[in-house]
Specification:
Blueprint: H1 9-12, E1 16-20, H2 27-34, H3 42-56, E2 60-64, H4 78-91, H5 94-104, E3 108-111, H6 120-128, E4 135-138, H7 145-148, H8 152-159, E5 164-167, E6 189-191, H9 193-207, E7 213-217, H10 222-232, E8 238-241, H11 243-252, H12 267-273, E9 279-280, E10 285-288, E11 291-295, H13 297-309, E12 312-316, H14 329-340, E13 344-348, H15 350-358, E14 366-368, H16 373-379, H17 385-388, H18 397-404
Helix pairs in contact: 10-16, 11-12, 13-14
The structure holds adenosine-5'-diphosphate and magnesium ion.
Amino acid sequence: MKYLSSLSKKNLAKQTCLLRVDFNIENTDLHGYEHGLTRIPLRVERVLPTIKFLIDRGARVVILSHRGRPKTQISADSQRKSALSQRKSAFTLKPFAKILSKLLKKPVQFIDFNFRKSDFLKLRNKIENFPPGSIFLLENLRFLPEEEKNDKKFAQRLALLGDFYVNDAFSVSHRAHASVVAITQFLPSYVGLALENELKKLNQVMKSPKKPLIIIIGGAKISDKIGVIKNFLKKADWFLLGGGVANTFLAAQKLPVGQSLYEETMIPLARQLLKSKKIILPIDSVVSKGAILDIGPKTIKKYTEIIKSAKTIIWNGPMGYIEAKRFRKGTNAIAKAIVKSRAFAVIGGGETTSIMSKVKGQKSKVFISTGGGAMLEYLAGKKLPGIEALKYRRKSALNQRQSAS
Ligand code: ADP
Ligand code: MG
């Protein structure tokens, strides 16, 4: 793979970079930040050094991202049209132009155009007429169905906008989408600074973890996490389970789980895994209306002790129904124990990282992954299409530009 970090001013000056980021940030989180209530969203914060790196070396940057899962069908009838405009306002990337501009103290041009009809070469000329160091942000790529279809023609047209491509969006690298995978066929492609760091941290826990290695798995569904458990069954020392995941194991032990969240179909697999003495289950729980909604105080104590002994920790998934404050104790306790421990910890998942970000303390040894699904797939040992795509060397886009127009 080729790394952006290895490029210098000599390589980058006056070149236009297509930079794939992940600004898939919920409106509630976005508004919280805009109103000064929450800190800068992690996924924005992580790519700022990459943008600065590029503009400081005289490159123009065209930022590509998706946001949400807007339905992309475009229909002529007026009702559907108004639905479309509603979707556009809910999923637009426009607010990010203002946010980036403030953070980078530079203007950021927002480009909203009909990707289908516009002339990509014309747009490219427009971009090239801006001075080196200019920044552009393209509208949500998922407004077009081609993006999620990994459409080659679309990727080829998109590629016309720049001289090279940088993937700095680990959290979408498990998706074979046009701006993540197909585009790498048409431009020299590089690993961005944030992606490079993210892979380094994940490889550290995968390839040479200091032992004991403790894996903490919670959250809703075991089917999402089973790959990680299997891949680490030999390497890890202990698996501490909580949440709906633990409930499935409890059910596999024929313990009454009542109304608790668990996965019936995963019981045979859980039974199989229980043969490993490394799997540790809660010894008490917080129950409400016949459902297990958090780990209990004895479990918190036990898990905290084990976490204290760890040198490496991987954590994904809350220990309970964290949406209600009274069932958040277990998850908070785990987060605090990790921060207090001397272990190097890698943490991922939307809910898990939001709890971790609220915990106070020295977090220099805690790495928060931007990926939920992508982190789980990577740690399960799967090949991520967006990362694999960066491994192939492509011809320069310059020769291919004519054939695309
Ligand atoms: P992450 O987003 O960190 O990857 P998941 O999406 O896997 O985590 O799981 C988070 C969800 O799991 C939360 O909505 C939480 O309410 C739910 N959950 C965890 N434990 C329980 C439980 N015991 N009962 C009901 N829901 C639970
Ligand atoms: Mg989640």
